[in-house]
């Protein structure tokens, strides 16, 4: 299966290359990135230079680069796995719209365990629906978006089972007011080389229940993206996520 890797020169790009090297089914035939690195396959700055035949695109980049490659994918009718995070509401709507024309797999977290955590926090939220829910995430100093896409993924999953009555509070430090009972609060910590930590805490008056996930290696995300790519090439147009393969 021929793969185009968008964001090929980045940290996750390098992890995907390493994961594919030990996978006999998959081959990266080219990459797209604004930075060119010596890597063993051509990396293009401009999608109009792509000459290779591609079965599926894997994207770990930035939203503007994702939208660029997405237009190319739609034009050429190529399925795309989007792992990039930090999209605006408008960009998410564009992705959803394009999924009527090609298969798109989008997840802010490609780890299977995080997706198990999603199911667990949904179960807990249903039982502890009156608790104060807070999400804390820690990532390496280079991460651009906050809160992380995974923090929002976890909050959205909780909100889905609570009839969407929770509001998201991203700005507690900007306001001097007490906690609203219908909010999910977010805290982001940035430093060092932390791959990714997410904690969802449910506070009641006399108890606290926490579920925590720690990723020790970026390989979990690369491996998840490869599984998603293998799944996606067999699908009809539509928007898929980890629920489709977990
Ligand atoms: N879904 C997941 O499981 C998961 C896991 C880890 C990271 N991510 C996300 O993947 C993305 C990439 O993460 P990373 O750690 O590899 O970041 P990174 O900064 O190391 O890599 C991003 C790459 O995109 C390239 N790029 C930036 N702007 C571009 C443009 N306009 N056109 C073309 N290329 C451009 C950069 O040159 C760089 O090589 C982030 O959004 C991150 O949050 C998702």
Question: Can you offer a commentary on this structure?
Answer:
By secondary structure, the chain is an alpha/beta fold. The protein has two domains: 2-110 and 219-244, Rossmann fold, CATH 3.40.50; 112-215, Dihydrodipicolinate Reductase, domain 2, CATH 3.30.360. The protein is built from six helices and twelve strands. The protein has a seven-stranded parallel β-sheet, with helices on both faces. The chain has a five-stranded mixed β-sheet with strand order 8-9-7-10-11, with helices on one face. Strand 10 (196-203) and strand 11 (208-215) form a beta hairpin. Helix 4 packs parallel to helix 5 (149-161). The protein is elongated, with a radius of gyration of 19 Å. Nicotinamide-adenine-dinucleotide (NAD) binds at residues 7, 9-13, 33-35, 60-62, 64-65, 83-86, 107-110, 149, 221.
The low-confidence parts are none
Instruction: Report the mean per-residue pLDDT as an integer.
Output: 96
Overall geometric form: elongated
Strand fraction: 25-35%
Largest sheet: 7 strands, parallel
Helix content: 25-40%
Task: Please identify the structural class as seen in this structure.
Answer: alpha/beta
CATH architectural arrangement of the largest domain: 3-Layer(aba) Sandwich
Number of contiguous helices: 6
Order of helices and strands: EHEEEHEHEHEHEEEEHE
